[in-house]
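Re: the 101-residue chain
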Amino acid sequence: MYKRQDLTSPETAAFESSSLHLHDMVIDPDLRARGWGKRLARHLINTGQLLGYGQIALVAVDDAAGFWASLGFRARPEVPLPATYGPDAVYMSRDLSSSCP
């Protein structure tokens, strides 16, 4: 059974990884359609490259897969997702060895 993490407590373990995982990125509805999403995503991609990470992974929800695909993320249908993400959820990743579109 899944145990919910206590978000009020600090992490107790550190894990070495060559991958970043983007958990959430939300733009205020009043600020959408102004390019903020792409700017934030490009900043994360560039920072990940500078820090030497190999890839970024995420779960696209609410029909956001097209947005992430425009930034070089590819769907990874072989990665199973919990049903709680919803029927349109797509696991996606992007190799950081290439520059951002």
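The helical segments are 36-50, 65-69.
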